[in-house]
Amino acid sequence: MSDRKDLSGKFIKVSEPEPHVLLVELSRGPVNAFHEPFWREFGRVFDDISNDPSVRAVVLASSLPKLFSGGLDFGGLSSLGTFDKDPGRKALQIREHIAQFQDSIAAPERCPVPVIAAIHGVAYGLAIDIMSACDVRYAAENARFSVKEVDIGLAADIGTLARLPKITGNQSFVRELAFTGRDFSAAEALQMGLISKIVAGSRDQVVAAALQTAKLIASKSPIAVLGTKRVLLHARDNTVQSNLEYVATWNSAMLQSSDTPSALKGAMEKKSATFPNLGKPPTAKL
Q1: Which of 79, 111, 198, 249 lies 20 to 30 Å (CA to CA) from residue 234?
Q2: Are 190 and 145 in contact (CB under 8 A)?
Q3: pLDDT digit string (tens) for 155-173?
Q4: Segment holding 15, helix H or strand E
């Protein structure tokens, strides 16, 4: 495992445990509570990863042995008192602040390579926003979740309410959790479709499982994986016909890549194909 100090920050550690695979670890003790410097660094780290053409898969985890994240650092809410006293101007400033927060937490979603969340212990509030912006979600059997914002007088506004209904397809379950703020288990998270796997054990075991999947993804054509992520994101927010037109246009270019004949040759010869790194990948939103 090699450190990637060029990508790490004060609150986030980045390492490369496998070729082309990054492990991004939230590392702000004692509970990975997010204040403004933390969430801005989170967005910056993922945007920097997006511009590294050697990266093909990312695992997002916590370096803390007992939990993933306690959510929002309530002390950070005091900054709202520094905004303009005029209600209209204050509202505009708060709205811009929220939009910047949303943009930072959405960074895993706009990252061109798959991001796998490996969750253990507590994952409350903002942790659900973060998970929802990832592509794949694994949880240790000891994971506990909560859409906690209602308990502090807020409607969740950083992505949970926008993404979770589309991830799970269960409006009733999502609304129950968002209205009550109650804890739910890894088993319930699997039942509702928030996660795709429960891993026996805690942090080390779920991170190992996520890294194994990331290693497999990294062995595939990076052109194919990048395209698959983009087409799936487009499909989520558009009609079937619109998505068919989108992927036809996308593949009219990407089928000209050398990755396709390399993959076909490898399949016919029953050998693992090797693929060159991407060029500097796009980071623009769809």
Answers
A1: 198
A2: no
A3: 999 999 999 999 999 999 9
A4: strand 12-18
Give me the residues paired with residue 68 across strands. Answer: none
149 token code pair:
């914002």
Tell me the CA end-to-end span of the chain in Å, nearest whole number: 33
**Domain definitions of the chain by residue range:** 2-218, 222-269
What does the DSSP 8-state code read for residue 276? P
CA of residue 77 relative to chain centroid, distance: 24
At 4-25, the pLDDT tens digits run 999 999 999 999 999 999 999 9
Ordered DSSP codes for 217-232: HHTS-HHHHHHHHHHH
Q: What is the CATH number of domain 222-269?
A: 1.10.12.10
pLDDT, average across residues 44-70: 97
Bridge partners, 185 (sequence order): 144
- Which single residue is written with the structure tokens 């070729």? 19
> DSSP 3-state assignment of 2?
strand
Short-list 134, 157, 137, CA closest to 145: 137
Mean per-residue pLDDT, 197-213: 98
